Amino acid sequence: MKNPVIRLCAALAALASVLSGAPAPSSKLVVAMLPKAKGNAYFLSCKAGADKAAKELGVELLFDGPTDSNAAKQNEIVENWITLGVDVLAVAAENKEGISTALRKAQKQGIKVVTYDADSMPDARSFFVNQATPQGIAFGLMDEAARLTNSEGEFAVITATLTASNQREWMKYIEVRLKEKYPKMKLVATRPCDDLKDKAQSEATALMSANPNLKLIMAICSPGVPGTAEAVKQAGKVGKVKVIGLGLPSENRRYVHDGVTDSVILWKTEDLGYLTIFAAVAVAKGELTSGAKSFKAGSLGTFALEGDNIILGKPFVFNKTNIDQFNF
Ligand code: RAM
Known about the structure:
six-stranded mixed sheet; Rossmann fold; alpha/beta; binds alpha-L-rhamnopyranose; 14 strands; 44% helix; 2 domains
C-alpha cells in the first residue's frame, strides 16, 4: 500500500493487534487487476490463473472491472485504486489512449503498471504481457479462413469495440495477410459487437442478410464466436457460412461438435493471468526492470522478452478433434 494514510492506519491496527492478541491486517503487496469486463468468461479464466499466482507469491489480488466493456468505467476503477494506494496495476485496456492518462497518473504516484491482453500507450506502463504476437494471431486466423473457403469469396469480421487496441492490431495484420496472399478473398465488413454475445448474434444476422454471398464470418473477440455461431444456426446456414474466431473451448464446444463452428483459436487464458501477476509482482519489487532480457514466471518457466513485451507463446487451434481435451 502506497497511500501514507492507509499505511499509518495499517501500522496502528497492527500495533493494536499485537497489544490485543487479535490477527494483524495484511501488509502484503497489493496487485489490482483490471479486465475489460468482469463477467467475460475469457477474463474469469485469466483470473483463475492470477489467483493461483497471487497465492504462490503471497500477494493480495484485487480484481474488478466494468460489467460490460466500458472505457470510462475502467478509468474510474483505476482512479479508485490510485486513491487506495495499491502497489501495482495489471490492466487490459479497453481504449489504448483513453486509459493511459490515468495509468500515467498512477505511475507518478509510485504505483507500478503492467498491461496484459490489450495494451495501453507504451509510456503508461512498464511491460505488456502479450498473449501471442499480433502477426501470429492474425495470420493464423486468415490462413484458417482461406483454408475453409478455398481462398476465395466474401467474408466478414466481427470485432470487440472499434477502439480495442488488441483487436485493432490484429485487424491490421489480417488485412496485410489478405492483401499479400489471398487476392480472391474479399473482406466485405468489419462490425463491432462490444464484446457481447447477443450483439454479435444480431450483427452476424444483419451481415448475412446484407451479404447473401457471404462464405465465412470471423469473430475476433471471445463472446463474438458463440454469438456468430448461434446466428448462423438460426439462419439455417450451417456449412454455407463458416464460422471461426478467437474463443474459449468451453463456450464453443457444442457449436464445434454440431459443425456450425469449424475452429477456434486461443491461448491458455489461465496462463496469461498467471504470467501477468508474476510480471506485476516482479516489477513492483524492482526485480523486472527495463532492458531485462528474460523473466522467470513460477511454474511456467522462463520467458524471453521482446523489448517491453513478455509473450506468452503460440496460440492453439481447437477443432472437433481436440476441443474436448480443454476445459477453459
Ligand atoms: C475478448 C476480449 C479480449 C480478447 C479475446 C480474444 O474476450 O476482447 O481482449 O483477447 O476476446
